[in-house]
Design a protein that fits this description.
Elements: E1 2-5, H1 10-16, E2 23-27, E3 51-55, H2 60-70, E4 74-77, H3 83-90, E5 95-102, H4 105-110, E6 120-125, E7 151-153, E8 174-179, E9 184-186, E10 189-190, H5 192-198
């Protein structure tokens, strides 16, 4: 599966949707340069079916309000949200992608994964800005822990390092690739030419 995250522009989205992208991610974290509500013409997102709303440690009532207003059924929690938080959303019929930030082997070992309350995991590079750094962790780290949940790989994915995905064991339930800063012209504006090249790669 391919997820393109951090889209902010309607015209850019119109160009992207011509490609077989499985999920489109929209960021509702106001400290992000890809904060979708900074665009006054953001209502186009209401009519997108396969979309994910991304939050970082947001009050759950606000999350529920955004999901209802913009008709989201998937949410990506990119902060320190715990099991109770996730379960409250799941009870509303929301699919949960729970993110974990990793820089070292020790970071990965210390993670307490929300196996019962998440539908998918997402592993991203541990940066001060909760993602979008363009940096990668050593993906081989993912081979050193047992987890029974499909996951997205994130953090610095680019055309140049796609072949390194093969370092992840086949039995580790890699579900999708989460593309962001390395497929951009500028924050929030995706590079359609790079996306096109991606779909021509023989991975």
């Amino acid at each position: 599966m391919i997820k393109v995250c951090g889209i902010t522009d309607e015209q850019n989205f119109s160009e992207l949707k011509k490609y077989p992208i499985d999920y489109f991610g929209f960021i509702f974290y106001d400290k992000s340069p890809r904060y979708i509500l900074n665009n006054p013409d953001h209502n186009f997102i209401k009519n997108i079916n396969n979309k994910v709303a991304v939050f970082v440690n947001e009050e759950i009532d606000k999350v529920l309000s955004v999901l209802k207003t913009y008709k989201f059924s998937y949410v990506q929690l990119h902060g320190n949200e715990g099991s109770d938080y996730c379960i409250k959303l799941k009870k509303k019929g929301i699919k949960i992608i729970k993110s974990y930030l990793i820089r070292t082997q020790e970071d990965f070992k210390s993670i307490k994964m929300e196996k019962e309350s998440a539908d998918y995991f997402l592993f991203d590079y541990k940066s001060d800005n909760h993602g979008g750094s363009g940096k990668s962790f050593d993906w081989k780290i993912l081979n050193n822990k047992l987890y029974d949940k499909p996951f997205f790989l994130s953090g610095g994915l680019s055309l140049d390092n796609m072949n390194n995905i093969k370092t992840i064991d086949d039995n580790k339930m890699l579900y999708g690739l989460d593309l962001n800063s390395k497929f951009e012209i500028s924050p929030g504006l995706k590079d359609v030419k790079k996306i096109s090249k991606l779909f021509n790669l023989n991975l």
